[in-house]
Specification:
- The radius of gyration is 42 Å and the shape is globular.
- The chain is about 35% helix and about 15% strand.
- The longest helix has 22 residues.
- It has 22 helices and 19 strands.
- By secondary structure, the protein is α/β, with parallel strands linked by helices.
- Strands 16-13-6-7-9-8-19 form a 7-stranded mixed β-sheet. A 5-stranded mixed β-sheet has the order 3-2-1-4-5.
- Among the domains are: about 60 residues, no CATH class; about 110 residues, no CATH class.
- This is Nucleoside diphosphatase.
- GO terms for molecular function: ATP binding; GDP phosphatase activity; ribonucleoside triphosphate phosphatase activity; UDP phosphatase activity.
Length: about 700
Amino acid sequence: MGKWRYGVILDAGSSGTRVHIYRWLNSDTARETASEAQLHKLPEIETDKKWIKKIHPGISTFGEHPHDVGPEHLDKLLSHALKHVPLEEVPNTPLFLLATAGMRILPPVQRKSVLKEVCDFARKTTKFQLPDCDVHVQVIPGETEGLYGWLAANYLLGGFDNPEGHDHGKGHHTYGFLDMGGASAQIAFAPNATEAEKHANDLTLLRLRTIDGAPMEYKVFVTTWLGFGVHQARQRFVKALLESSPGATELPDPCLPAGAKVTVNKEGKSFDPDKDEGHGTELVGTGKFPECLHQAYPLLEKEKECLDSPCLINGQHTPAIDFDVNHFVGVSEYYHTTHEIFEMAHRDDDGYDFKSYQKGVNEFCSQSWKDIEKGIAKNKWGKKVDAETALEVCFKASWLINVLHDGIGVPRVGIEDLNGNHNVTKAKIGGGKTKGFLNPFQAVNKINDVEVSWTLGKMVLYASSEIPAPSTEALAVGFGSNEPGIPDDFQYPGGSYHAYSGTEDDWHDRLFSENPRRIPGFLIFILIVFVIGYMLCGRERRKIARQKLGRMFGRGGRPSLRRRRGFPGKLFGLRSTPSYERVLEEGEPSNDFELGSFSDASDNDHSDSTDGSRVGRTSGWATPQIKTGIAEPGTPYVDSGTDLIAQGAGLGLGPPGAFGNAIERGGLMARTDSRERMAGGRRSRANSPRRKSPMMKLEE
């Protein structure tokens, strides 16, 4: 493991996927190099704008053809990551793909298929760490997204590491977090002590760990409002216009600049002649922003019944927000809608205030569409502002103002009295400008030149979890229900680090993954290796192995002659001709045999022979000795050796009969074989059983 640890996160949103690369010192190095003050801080996460890449569209568009998500989408993102993560650190680098709103609306079967393809493709094409796809590749709920965003904002602002420097009063030192995308909006904040105690069951318990291993614990309220993102809200707004005048072919829209025209279908989306049936309805802009504000207000659905008081938007419970101590930062659309066009009007201001913002929006939205088009052509509002952005911004601004002030209850700075002596907290953000967090709300994009993204919060949690616990009693890093100990729904960040040894082959890396289909292949591989090894070990060793296996599996008792035939015999080196294991039994004529000593320890380890023979050793089948000469041809031979040959015939070595006939049939072979044996050779007949005894000497 090197000095640096790396992490890669793919933020799979509804409109596209963005890859983020982060790095931090490994925990051992961090502790060795940290000052006393740094030991009490969270790991320092680094990133670079060159390490970020986004492509369109989102992975949710691959629901009907999931097999294409790898080569057509992920390949570009993973290739980008591999360019910036050192090659030797890739196997040590965790990879996450966390999907948000776009994937949440996919049918479950399609969602599962896309996620599986993501994991399989990443494992096949890279060596990034993916030990558990259920943890590393998943669709996260809006609440988790909001919690990660809260963690990222407070991490960058210093609320965790320097609580004294961010004292907001009443013992409060963290910031609230607001996020708004196209489909949903999130809020996350730590309530004051009174509200935290009153609504303890509604809070999420978050545990972190500093570099020295000390625990950090926070209780945060998080909720999400589905359908309250800017695009979904605009769609609901247009549908309300259409329902108010059914059948109309043209309708006035106060949220469009005067003279602007947009055609929509019955669902409130832009009309597409190739997809939509019938005729669309044309919306004609009137440029009356105050009326736009008024007509967007009902979309907050504040009239819905509140089952658990207090509630803010859509009848969803939220603990009371104490704006004396809860200072919020807003990202995504909160930033873009206040800065993309209107930044010029308040670039020198210290922060957002309602009066200045509303004035700037009124001035822009009251212009005619023709004048706005001329300004776009001259880059009056910057190169990023095009016609589509200009058409959308008036409704977005009205929606943001409604959500902030009438929905969440943020005081209207510049008009309303804040009713309290707010502590001023200064922080360096965006371009080194000093901006005060006296205001209850501040729109930000970067803090200290680092983008405020929920992906950063995820990586802070992961890096924190890699720090060794000071004792076995220390509680794990992660988050879950606000309960003592480790609740049932506790989510671990996946930070159990195991260094890559660099010795395993690719098949070994992936062999024992959670895919059970790979295990049978491994067993087959082991069986093939065993069979090959068995066939190459030689006939003598095979016999010894069979005898040991026989004793191991209880094949004891009375020995017998057993016949081996057929395919199994051929497969394991046994001949099709019947062969026998010769074991002496009680009552057999064995007085003329002398069995040699036998040892289980093999001396054949260094033999070059197929059978593993060595010079000076018998084959295990010893020839009996005949002490008298051979009779002349045609003369009956009478000797005690005749009994011995008869015994051999009885043992299956040949048919019983006259000794002379036996010599005539096999005498030459016997003499030749005998000489080879006496010379120290080790040769035995192919079909004969083997026994260890002194060699039989044939006298010519």
